[in-house]
Amino acid sequence: MQRICVMGLGYIGLPTASVLATHGFQVLGVDVNARVVELLNAGRIHIEEPGLHTLVQAAVNSGNLRAALEPEPADVYCIAVPTPLTADKRADMTCVREATEALAAHLQPGNLVILESTSPPGTCRGLVAPILAASGFTPGAQVHLAHCPERVLPGKILKELIENDRIIGGYTPACAEKAKAIYSTFTEGEIILTDATTAEMVKVTENTFRDVNIALANELALLCEELELDFDEVRRLASRHPRVNVHQAGPGVGGHCISVDPWFLVERSPQTARLIAAARCRNDSMPRHVARRVQALLGDAADRPKVAALGVAFKGNVGDTRESPALEVVRLLREAGAEVAVHDPYARFSPVELCTLEECLAGADCLVVLTDHNDYKYLDPRPLARVMRRPVVLDTRHILNVDEWRRAGFQVAVLGVGGR
Ligand code: SAJ
């Protein structure tokens, strides 16, 4: 049985390690966090993702998955560690460097090293390969190296891990073939081979495409507010054109990927990547716009007005709060002197204190919907109007039935809708 060492047991490493363990590999999951290691060895998990707990339990019970703080000799090493931003918006490659150094100490001829972490173009050649070479083995000759970027959507990770097409970029074509042999054991999507730097650029391009399109939607929404139009109607009608598909406006872009990766391109060439940088700034400006709209709705309602914030996760139906624009809206409103009560049915590991829906709404002067959880789409507004001090709502996700809320006595404001 082939041995695989998965470096990093986060949102990507943990599902990947579990899927590999249930597809015939002997897997060691490695993480620097002792609690994560302890939990996994007990068949438990530290993150929220539908179906993941069951899969991890099955993998651990099969005896094919265990965790440790340090890597061990293996046939394949898969690096799935974070690539966050530094304070000055540059890729912080510390985790990739340290994981590579840790595994390089165990390297044997014929081993395959796969980088899954989203990384700036050139990382395999410029960072990983030299560390492998320094351990005495020539990448592409004695050991194999490939980039196989993860592309799974939080909330649908297990489904997409199996079904999505995979891009594999080899340090050499033979390296790509080696990596393909591993992924083809569990991937139902097509596996397409290229070189390592192209694969790195492909992954960053995907998330940049999304970020720039969301920024465009947000900017158009702001214009619609100024022009006293309804952006959602504009969006729906424009998207009837066969080559137009307008994204949704919202309170900003969260998560650990789309709000981070475009900066990897800006860092490489700030003079060229000006559209990408502007899009990032537009998306980052949205929480402040939302906070301003809430403040306008509050007017001089009270000395210390109460705001009920619904949703703190970065997107609907997930519990992940990383880089969530909702957190920034809460922070800005508190900074401006409001009491902000926060509700979220999913975000078990929220960095801000959560309360029940009843506590959240009791005596509130304004309700703001920040996350498009299904739970909020079907809220009955009538009992809410009775417990709030003032029945006022701002929907930043365009998910409420405006007529129904108005009938229940609410003053309804919607992000991207001006005037009416
Ligand atoms: N959002 C909008 N408007 C939209 C779409 C999204 O405001 O029209 C917001 C969401 O509310 C959220 C953020 O953007 O705050 C990002 O959400 P998302 O669902 O678009 O993407 P992520 O961050 O959950 O996952 C992305 C995916 N990339 C692409 O869709 C190109 C996923 O496939 C990647 O694997 C993941 O990043 C990653 O790990 O890189």
* Average predicted confidence as pLDDT: 96
Main β sheet profile: 8 strands, mixed
Order of helices and strands: EHEHHEEHEHEHEHEHHHHEHEHEHHEHE
What is the helix content?
40-55%
Low-confidence stretches: none
* Termini gap: 65 Å
Tally of DSSP β-strands: 13
Please report the number of helical segments. Answer: 16
Shape: elongated
| Residue share in β-strands | 5-15%
**Estimated structural class:** alpha/beta
Strand order, main sheet: write it out: 3-2-1-4-5-6-7-8
Based on CA atoms alone, the radius of gyration comes out at: 24 Å
Bound molecules: ligand SAJ
Describe this protein's structure:
The protein is of the alpha/beta class. Strand 4, helix 4 and strand 5 form a beta-alpha-beta unit. Helix 1 packs across helix 3, helix 4 packs parallel to helix 5 and helix 10 packs across helix 11. The longest helix is centred in the middle third of the chain and has 32 residues. It is elongated and about 70 Å long. The termini are far apart. The model has no long low-confidence stretch (mean pLDDT 96). Ligand SAJ binds next to helix 8.
Q: Keywords, please?
A:
8-stranded mixed sheet, 5-stranded parallel sheet, alpha/beta, binds ligand SAJ, 16 helices
